[in-house]
Amino acid sequence: MDQVETFATLPMWAGFVGFVLVVLALDLYVLGGRHAHRVSSREALCWVLAWVALATLFGALLWWFLDATLGRATANRKALEFFTGYLIELSLSVDNMFVFSLIFGYFAVPLDLQRRVLLYGVLGAIVMRVSMILAGVWLLSQFAWLFYVFGALLVVTGARMLAKADHQPDIARNPLVRLLRSSMRITKDYHGEAFFVSIGGLRYATPMFVVLLMIEASDAVFAVDSIPAIFAVTTDPFLVFTSNIFAIMGLRAMYFLLADMRERFRYLKHGLAAVLIVIGGKMLAAPWLHVPVHWSLGAVGLILLASVGASLILPGRIAANAARPKAKASKTGDPP
Hints:
- With about 325 residues, this protein is an all-alpha fold.
- About 75% of the residues lie in helices and about 0% in strands.
- The chain contains eleven helices and two strands.
- It has a two-stranded antiparallel ribbon.
């Protein structure tokens, strides 16, 4: 396992954190984040492209800086680690996005309120990810053997995800939902963007508050998988942090663009499970087998492309095969 160290200086950390805060402030106070509205597919696509462009620009600037200070070899390696980590985090976030869709559907969250609750979800996710990344880096620096524990965790998680790929979680039976319903007064209807309201002198939580807690809880669960996964690519805390943040910041826009396509990408979850298993296997095999970062990037890319391709091709064939017997029955006069 590589030693836990970073090339980033304190000004670089402060500069990136400042960039994130500025973007969040623009979203909240300038670009309409404080006002409920329905996000169109066109708006979502523009934001997805903007975040991908920003991540690409950051990777290019990172390469340029390292090339000038630490040499071409280090620049190539670190930039490749960033892009590989970004792709892994972004792909694993897709499954989280589909869970968001299930939560919004179960609680019947109005479309014009979804953007607001996701914004608060992103803020909470950033704080949570920073805490978990710092904890993970510290633990790896103190206990190197935890690297292999993370690898085993990813393999087990990937296998469980693969076994339950066709199973959708039952939101009604979620322990957090049951706990909130048994311990809090919750209104039946939404009250705009309010999380709490007063009715008859009593304090009530709205479904909006329950949805926010569910969003945060789901991100915490997925962070347990995604953060160890990137340690298979790099242990540099700056690269782990920046790739995570870029993936999280682009998640909201991707949700509004792709959430309704959950059924179309039916094999994507199988692909994400395979990614976890491959990355975990790479971590476990590290003492005996060195896998270059560009091979990891290629493997993740191929798995994702294969799962998306299977999702787009196989359902069409299944539907065509299902239609043939029906057509034959209509010709012979048999009842459908």
